[in-house]
Amino acid sequence: MLKGSGVDFMFGIPGGGSTADLINGAADEEIQFILTQHESSAAIMAGVVGDVTGVPGVCLSTLGPGALNLCNGLGHAWLDRSPVVAFTDRYGSELVDLAYRQKIDHNDLFKPFTKLSAGLTKTNWSEMLARGFRMARMPRRGPVHLDFPNDLSKVEIAGLGNVMDPEEFLPEANAKQVKLGLEKIGRAKRPVAIVGLGITAAQSEVFGPLKSFVERFHIPTFKTAKAKGSLPDNHPWSLGVFMGGNLEQSIIEKSDLIIAIGLDPVELLPKKWGYPQPIVYVDTIPNIEENYHADIELVGEIGSTLKKLHDECTDAESRWRVEEMSAYRENTKEVLQFKVDGLSVVQVIDATRELTPADAFLTVDVGANKLLVIELWDAFMPGCFFMSNGLATMGYAIPSALALQLLHPDRKVVSLCGDGGFMMRLPELATAVQYRLPIVMVIFSDGRLSLIDVKQIKKGYSVPLP
Prior knowledge:
Blueprint: E1 9-13, H1 18-28, E2 32-35, H2 39-53, E3 57-61, H3 65-69, H4 71-79, E4 84-90, H5 106-110, E5 116-119, H6 125-137, E6 143-149, H7 175-187, E7 191-195, H8 204-217, E8 221-223, E9 238-241, H9 249-252, E10 257-261, E11 279-283, E12 296-299, H10 302-311, H11 322-335, H12 345-354, E13 361-364, H13 370-376, E14 385-386, H14 397-407, E15 413-418, H15 419-424, H16 428-434, E16 440-444, H17 450-458
Parallel strand pairs: 1-2, 1-3, 3-4, 4-6, 5-6, 7-8, 7-10, 8-9, 10-11, 11-12, 13-14, 13-15, 15-16
Helix pairs in contact: 2-4, 2-14, 8-10
């Protein structure tokens, strides 16, 4: 069933029970098992596979301590909307109610940050696996956990059940709402689009309609960090990353309409939405969070909705001038330039970009350098920029780079990482060597947690020098 669902890799550290049996069976189906050095790395790598392919990535662990180690990676998958299916060992039916050693209630552990946490049995395994894969893939995407009892993996079961169809169905946006949205956009003199992680790397069919829509209406377009590259950074109507901060104000304050395309509030700063402009909302699910109020909601497959807006427009064009976009981009670069003793973060970013192929994948870690990287790194293609933004967890860059290199052995993969995040994942260098994954790691090394230094200084605390 896993192979029929499109699974090619598993990641993790197995126990001696059901997960060991699962790995052995997977080899017969030509599913490659990647032994990581930590379970959270395995979950992050599985999340990247889900992000890129659209098929939920699979990770596994033993019971107890192994399951606990999965938490950070599955928390990332939960808040960064990555489809993952995680298997954990569990005591068999005869021992589960008697055992205390290494025993943690896995379902209670994972329920707060998974879309489903359930146990497999002899009679339900096929249905639960199908449900888990479907739930992981449906918007908003996320992780699913399945407990795998040790006495189940060797049981003979007749028939495989139904193999899950990897194609998912999404509805079309309501025609009346599309007409209202088109009228709203057509009347706007200075609309601005903000594209978010509702558009993922796996949705290649969306990027063409997005580009055509932006060009048809002459719409300046911000991207959130997770959507960077969805409209290439060198496109005439492409602006920088939307953070809800001061940089964007020079454009936002001139606008009279915001078009929120896949704008998930998990990427917004934890503060009240402060923009008064009306909003046209385009996404696969309704605006249930109401972090910002949408005047018109176009709910359906995003690429199809954008194509309808493009095709049904007869005469509409904004008053923005493309020169304003160029000026904004240049000003952003100037604002973020600063002098330091030695090599600056900005110089490292520029040098790395200059030496890197246009189609290279970049992964970035969390730390003082993150904001500079997401603003200044030029992403020339959709689906080539990866970071943890919803959870914003340190230690993301290296395992995500390893997963990308597995998926694309012929593409260059580069990781920009602070020394703090690098040290958290230092053992994964062994994974890179074992599986011959030639990722390039650029480390910002100052021997400090610099972002914490900044926050301590703001609070008036003394910060000891290294």
